[in-house]
Amino acid sequence: MTEPNIVLIMTDHFRRDALGKWTPRLGSFAARGVRFENAYCASPLCQPSRCSIITGMYPSQHGVCGNQNAPVPDVLRDDSFMHHLQRAGYFTALIGKHHYLDRYGVGMDVTQDDGEVRRYGFDRVCQVVDDGENMHNEDEYTKHLQRTGRLDEFRKAFAANAWACKSHPFPPEETADGFIGTKGIEFVEEYADSKPFYLNLSFIGPHPPFWHPGEPSIAPADVASPIGAADTRDVRETRVHYLEKCALIDRYVGRLADALEHRGLLQNTVMLFTSDHGENAGDYGIWDKRFYYEQSCGVPLLLAGPGVPSEERRNGPRVSKAIVSHLDLFPTILGLAGVELPPNPGRNGRDLLAVARDEPGSGHTEIHAQLGTSVMIRTPNWKLVFDPQAGGVQQLFNLAVDLKETTNLAGVAGYETVTADLIARLLSQHIRLHQRTHVKEEQRVQRVHIP
Questions:
Q1: Superfamily name with CATH number, domain 5-362
Q2: Residue pLDDT, tens place only, 370-421
Q3: How far, in Å, CA of 393 to CA of 106, rounded?
């Protein structure tokens, strides 16, 4: 088998800076490959972000602009990178959360959607929804709890404890993330097909509620102070619970890598780790993700395995400072599988391996993100947020000197030129993505370009 196995580990609400002291297995993962420290989602919201990853397009292109949105059209479902992997001979599996279909508040057995989810390009599906959604929906996790006689206990404990950040009543392996991690390990241990596999192991954490098994092992004094908000004990304690959920996921990532190594598969498996978006976790007084701050729009992004640059830089693991996007996962994953990128002028991604190798012309000069009526542009030094419905430029940060984004320069005298340049770039991007012409018009109208 020459093509590598590919494992995409997804999380939900996982901040970039949650990587570190309490995620040692992810640290060793990063040490085997490359960490992109300036990676961004295409939208800081679950459903649009996840649909952008699988299509390689922005929300305004694929049409999923918010949660509880209708799914992408069939033509895009059939053009997901998972479908292209299937056609190239990969066995494809999803274990955990997907959020390509939204069933929040519906009250149904979501496993009835397995056929619809397979339409996105999966041979095997094991669906798990968020804690909270499993109070009114059934999924593979609630079915497991039902079989073991613990579903009523779980739902009673959730109602009493979850939103108060009190301890989860079950051991780690009986939590939803533990169930997802265990199913991923079982997939690796039992896989016997001669085909290479693509596994999307998608944890629900550290999405709220921030409850977790056992007593916290992290001290409130050891967590970072919030940016732009009061440093209270309540904030620190809630951050502890959040980081405990990240640490739980870290342990299962490590066990998955151990299972791959035990099967002799690790050397021929590329592993990718990211999150659909981040979480402000009290920074700026916000407990949510629907913003363009680095904590919410920025995401962790790690790659390791065959073909991934791993040589050390600056006396440590390889770190890329290039600005990159979730849209880059589409061409990168297909490139890893040796699959020719299907032609589509609407796609905007770059090959992350070429970016990591610093190949000339491989990187982005700017990154964009979208949410509702607002858009963000991020260049190496600047970030601008524009919302015409709210009156235009909302935020302007000089990230070369203001990494914590505490000084909003929007409307400040002396920054008119940089503001105008960034707005012009946003306008150019919008026109390029959404306006086309025909050959006939190209011939009649001078200087018209077909992308």
A1: Alkaline Phosphatase, subunit A (3.40.720.10)
A2: 999 999 999 999 999 999 999 999 999 999 999 999 999 999 999 999 999 9
A3: 37
